[in-house]
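Structure, all two chains, one model.
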Amino acid sequence: MPSKDSQTRRVIAGIGLLLATAVIATAGRLMTPPFEPGVPAYREKGTPGAPIVITEFSDFQCPACQQVVGPLHQVLTLYPGKISLRFRHMPWDFHRWAAAGAAAAECAGKQGKFWEYHDLLFARQGAWSLAATPEANLSDFLRYAKETGLDETAFGSCLKDPETAKAIEKERKENRDAWINSTPTMVINGKRFIGSHQLRTVGLNHIENELKKAGRF
Amino acid sequence: MSRKDRKNKHSEAAASAAVPAQAPDPRWEIAGAAARVILGGVFLLSGLHKAFAAPEEFAAVIEQYRLLPPQRILAFATAVPWIEIFVGLSLVAGYWVRATAAVAGGLFVMFLAALGSTLVRGIPLENCGCFGGGIHLTAAQAMGLDSILLCLAYCAYRFGSSYAPLDAWIDRGA
């Protein structure tokens, strides 16, 4: 039978390990500053100043991001005047044309047609994602620019401008620093939801709770 | 020789015969300690990958298994890294080795059952979630890894009590 001294030592060791676990498990959270990213006005839709702000972190070549476009649209129509939707670029390196897609959407945004181009990129994801060469990819994006009614010359020079890619890279780094490691991530009034399933289940509950808190439900 | 002498001789012989069977081979002791430390390291790595990321990301992986109700998933995703870090630290530090190795083995049986159920139900897992969003393994790869780790847990349970710093410290008080 273990002596009292040995039992005391076991309890002390157990408490020490639990404390170490608590410190390690919470350290990362404490070190990470709150993330309230801004976006240019052309990447925001819905109602400015609405009680619910959804910031979406997305990659145009990611199939799961395509699947969340419909549910996000439904959320906007379900709560008219109560939602502001913001888009943040999060193109993955392992998606060959994702950064180019983000740049194209950004160039469309500079001409005031970000959301039209956004919808078109997701609707045709299966086509442009399969481009074999950068030239084929560029030709797809230029064709979409024409369809969206953009100034093709301005669009083309914006795509070639290194500042466009640099700005997207900067945004991606900011996202990574704030632990955005999955797409699509939706931050709804500060709380994260990942993928369309979380948005449709716990995400909708969160929106309703937030609206109740704001006295708008 | 008296009956008492014969009895004493018999028990001495039994004791000397029993010693080699009870004392573990030092090579197994080293293997057990190594298994314990490796296993603890894997648990720590896995727990840290999850703890240093948003729990919602691990929750999104757990959703794919379709085993838990949506309302419980986030709590589960938040709790798992704590359990993994605690078990990992306990194994590395050699705390209550047999009990923590048994818990580790139980966790691997649970992971294997969950992974196996996805294969049976035909759910294509993009990422097993073993290391959160960090290292992506398919269900089959994860089952292979978990089977190896289950063997290590058994080895740590049987032979890992030697060279366990915390247990040695605790036993000094016995």
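Chain A touches chain B through 32 residues (CB under 8 Å).
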